[in-house]
What does this fold into?
Amino acid sequence: MTKILVADDDPLARQLTGRVLTRAGYQVFTAEDGLQALEYLTRKDGPRLALLDWTMPGLDGPGVCRKMRALAEQPYTYLILLTSRESKEDTISGFEAGADDYITKPCDAEELKARLRAGQRILQLQDKLYHDARHDPLTQLPNRAWFLKKLNDCFARTRERHDFLYAVLFLDLDRFKCVNDTLGHSAGDELIIAVAERLTGCTRQDDAVARAVDFNGPARGSDDFLARMGGDEFTILLEDIGTPADAAFVAERIQRSMAAPFTIAGQQLEISASIGIAVSGPEVKKAEDILRFADMAMYQSKACGGHQSRQFAEPVTPAV
Amino acid sequence: MPDVLAGEPLRHFRHELRTPLNHIIGFAGILIDDAEEAGRGALVAPLREIHAGGLGLLEAMQAALPPDMESLDRAQLGQIAEALRPRIEELLGRCRSLEQTGAYAGGEEGLEHLQTITWALGEMTNILTRGMTGPES
It folds into this structure.
């Protein structure tokens, strides 16, 4: 059931609009002022459709629009000003504040419902854009951009909690180019999808996109992240791990999961992976450092023949 | 009331009138839905007249107070009030008659809706009489 917020300081107007929308199959939430409206709209699972009166105590409808539009991290919310103010200046100023639509009271119930359906279509498009911007189209895993965002968040957390430990696993398939060269790029894509599924199977899925790794170990409330960086490269961000050994445990688990052959284009393929592991520490000066360290460790694995995991170790600087 | 309403006060006055109109049209619509859903077709026609009367008042108000109107003086307001008053009175009469005869569906809730329409019609008269006062909506 689609949630919708009706914010109006007039109880009769709330009752009237609420009734129309309830009967149209919406789950209606009501707010009697702008601050209450904002509180509903910023809830994690709050309504993403809202009908806002213009004049309300505390914060008016356009004020709610401006505050909502200033929240960059918020999923898009479709905001409609439903007001008795009908001048062109008000309409323009409402849209400038961030409203998506502007309806003048009294409004026809059928027109209101049709406009809300249009709003829902916009939200669906927004959601698709948001999803596509953060996901790899081949595997539907989080993409590089989203991974870097999560990594930055994680790095920021180390400043708040000095005992906060996290790790990055950088995985690259061994001899993937041979698959593309001998079986073709479609087979290569098929293999990437199959590997993504195996890797996902190594993780505990908390929701549609973020995947928490089950360490069977001392990890606490982990919210870890599997992503495809591009080509045959995957990364996993392990948040809030107990010790560096937890990261090695996950890498080992992935190596085991890769042991069984893959059936691609009707052929059995034995595919191995090289994994680099980097754990947070004082040498990580910015978020990208840990990713670079994991990448370097992965190349060390490759240099040693592949099909293994290596933990990043800072090169020893020779004493002068 | 000032002798001339212009700018924001005029906009305020216009939309102050729209608030009760919203209630009249909206609650009449609800009463029609309830009567239809209760299978009480005989009640629908008089309710439709109230609904149509509300829409007629909206139309008349919009004609008398168009959004591009720049100012309104006391004499013009008097003329508008005089033009709207008989329509309001007529609708009030219809509502009271339905209230007295119990010719509405939805029980207590239906009565409340009807009383809301009656109240909103009275509110329109008050707004026209006193000019620009009362809270915005």
About this structure: The CA atoms of residues 31 and 109 of chain B lie 9 Å apart. Residues 132-137 of chain B have pLDDT under 50 and may be disordered. The radius of gyration of chain B is 16 Å. The longest helix of chain B spans residues 8-37.
